[in-house]
Known about the structure:
By secondary structure, the chain is mainly alpha-helical. The protein is 43% helix and 5% strand.
Amino acid sequence: MSAQPRDEAMLPNLEKVMRENSAQLGFNLQMKWQKKIFLVLIVICTVSVLLHHGGHFTWNNQVFHFGCSHQAQGAKPKHSNIVFLKTHKTASTTMQNILFRFAERNNLTVALPVQACGHQFCYPRSFSSHFVHLHTLRPNLTTNHMRFNKTALQRLMPNDTIYITILREPASMFESLFTYYSRHCMSFKRVPNGSLEEFLVEPLRYYRPEEIDSMYARNTLTFDLGGDKDRPAKDIAYAHEFAAEVEKVFSLVMISEYFDESLILLRHLLSWDMEDILYVKLNMRTEGSKKKLSPGLPEKIQAWNSIDAYLYEYFNASLWVKLSDLGLDCVAKEVQLLRQAQERLMGTCFGGKMPLPRSAAEIKNKDLRPWQPSDKVDIVGYDLPVNISREAQERCLKYIMPEISYTRILLHSQSLRHRRGYLKSHVPRQHIGTALPRHSQVHRSQPPLPFVHSPASGTESKSTPKQSKGTTKLEP
């Protein structure tokens, strides 16, 4: 009988507990809905920001953590001391543009050629610091065309400089060289009807190794890297030794056919962000300027350019070892992110459309007109739409600026910076309450030399000294 009152006494407590649990459940449900509403608001705000900025925003390394989490760079500073050996007809102009823009954004100094060298470091002569403009000394980056000279570059650049370059499959590269320099290289000009097929039947009939532009006609990559372009094709030992020496010097050898994948490796090597490797393809030929290689021709080209062919096979394999070490799935995800960012860039700069390549005559802005090597080759460029914002125009202009124009603009801006630094360090300090005497003069640096580019990309006047013969050691 005593249990019944005790059970009845417990009822109010049970009701209290149930009310409390019900209230807690209601509170939890309310919190869940608030979280959902908060997430929706975040998504709406993010989309609004992207639309406001033309679909563009700054990427950082954290974006890639789900792509290459094991390779996250964290707070590691970006590497900025770089030599990029700009090789011929390998997408190197696009890579150079990436480096030029990186230098401007980070207030770095780019080594640029003196007036007498044009827009290249007196190529095809072996590089010397004497070819570097005074106003661009103590550089962080070097990227204009040169013939590689390790000793001279190591004296010029900081000790922690990273060396990179880019190669291209020899058959497609040689077809491009033959067409591009058909009016400048005597080895090509001698060929009847400008026939690539005719040249490859008997190359030694037209080729003269001692001529100033002969490097365009045989083993151009080898020559650019400082090697001996005229070693016999059977000298496999030299090719192997030279490739090993290149590998010791260059931390990354990019491959043109895998440009995006190469950029991912570059990003990790230099601890760069996504925005640092965005690009627009530059210095491209129209399809009508390209020649389709007939069956058997690629093999003949590779046999004639045997050292280049060896280098390509060697460093193409090396590239894929590096990609595998990073993780192929990771690389694929980062390439996808890169291409998505490229699409956003196109949206910002070209109104959501892919840029329409234009001939030089169609481009209104003279600074955006690419150099034309001859009437046989049509190099296309771009023009910005008139209906994009001024902010977008300023940001996008440098993405599509040709090499010669960009080099000239960089030289001008760096010369101004050099003058300001010179004046600041040489103006006499005034004592308090006194003024400079009227006869005092401020020593000013000499004005920058006017920019003059050579009549043909990669060529010099006939007075240019004879090129030095290459060596295995990448040195003079």
